[in-house]
């Protein structure tokens, strides 16, 4: 996190503010230790993104995914609480943020992907979907490959394909009109995300892709089914 990526600071954050910030290319995160203090509104100069066709799935991940089951929006609070675990390095999700995103979830904007091994929640991610844009906020895992599997499952939902077999699921909102164009925003690119195919683009490039994705319907349609 680089303070040069900080664009504004406020005392609080509301659901309408958060949704407007995503549409403007910003995202909220507290500026203090562990995400405390005033709310910062961030727009990285170099943005981490995942485009259609860029996901990298290793043989090891494909093998792991065969042993997991996946759900959507079944355990949102459990996922965000796991992501907020203060024992995690770089934890920034405060109680204020949890309450804020639970409200967005209740209103159909924030969503979670859950990864299960039998009846145990072993990984997942959450974020906000607007049109064909998904703003990824955080992910976690307690078993190897579980967070990667959550992202891979999200991509296969948006693409309408099965990552493991490569076969069409015919679940895409635009399955009859050709390739689906969506955008997953990871905020910053990390070495971990880079191994999954997340690339880094300029803020100007990001704005153009965001504008296009916001006019679509894929992500929001799929995750609100």
- Helical residue percent band: 25-40%
Please list the strands of the largest sheet in the order they lie side by side.
5-6-7-8-9-4-10
Provide the structure class.
alpha+beta
Count of individual helical segments: 8
Largest sheet: 7 strands, mixed
Q: Runs with pLDDT <50, length 5+?
A: 170-180
End-to-end C-alpha gap: 34 Å
Order of helices and strands: EHEEEHEHHEEEHEHEHH
pLDDT averaged residue by residue: 91
* Beta-strand content bin: 25-35%
How many extended strands? Answer: 10
Estimated radius of gyration = 17 Å
C-alpha geometry: globular
Give a summary of the structure in a few sentences.
By secondary structure, the chain is an alpha+beta fold. Helices cover 32% and strands 26% of the residues.
Description:
The radius of gyration is 17 Å and the shape is globular. The relative contact order is 0.19. The protein has 8 helices and 10 strands. It is 32% helix and 26% strand. The protein has helices spanning 15-23, 59-65, 76-83, 95-106, 146-159, 191-194, 203-214, 218-223, and strands at 6-10, 27-30, 39-42, 46-50, 69-72, 110-117, 120-130, 133-141, 183-187, 199-202.
């Amino acid at each position: 996190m680089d303070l040069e990526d900080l664009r504004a600071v406020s005392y609080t954050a509301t659901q309408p503010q958060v949704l407007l910030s995503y549409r403007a290319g910003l995202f909220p995160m507290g500026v203090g230790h562990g995400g405390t203090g005033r709310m910062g509104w961030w727009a990285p100069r170099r943005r981490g993104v995942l485009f259609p066709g860029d996901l990298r799935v290793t043989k090891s991940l494909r093998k792991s995914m065969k042993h997991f089951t996946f759900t959507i929006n079944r355990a949102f609070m459990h996922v965000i609480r796991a992501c907020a675990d203060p024992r995690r390095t770089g934890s920034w999700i405060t109680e204020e943020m949890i309450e804020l995103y639970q409200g967005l979830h209740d209103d159909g904007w924030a969503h979670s992907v859950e990864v299960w091994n039998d009846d145990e929640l072993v990984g997942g991610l959450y974020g906000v979907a607007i049109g064909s844009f998904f703003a990824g906020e955080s992910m976690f895992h307690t078993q190897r490959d579980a967070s990667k599997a959550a992202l891979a499952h999200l991509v296969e939902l948006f693409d309408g394909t099965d990552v493991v077999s490569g076969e069409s699921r015919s679940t895409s909102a635009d399955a009859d009109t050709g390739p689906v164009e969506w955008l997953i925003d990871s905020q910053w690119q990390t070495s971990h995300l880079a191994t999954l195919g997340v690339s880094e683009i300029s803020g100007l490039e990001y704005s153009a892709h965001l504008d296009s994705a916001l006019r679509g319907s894929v992500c929001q349609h799929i995750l609100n089914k």
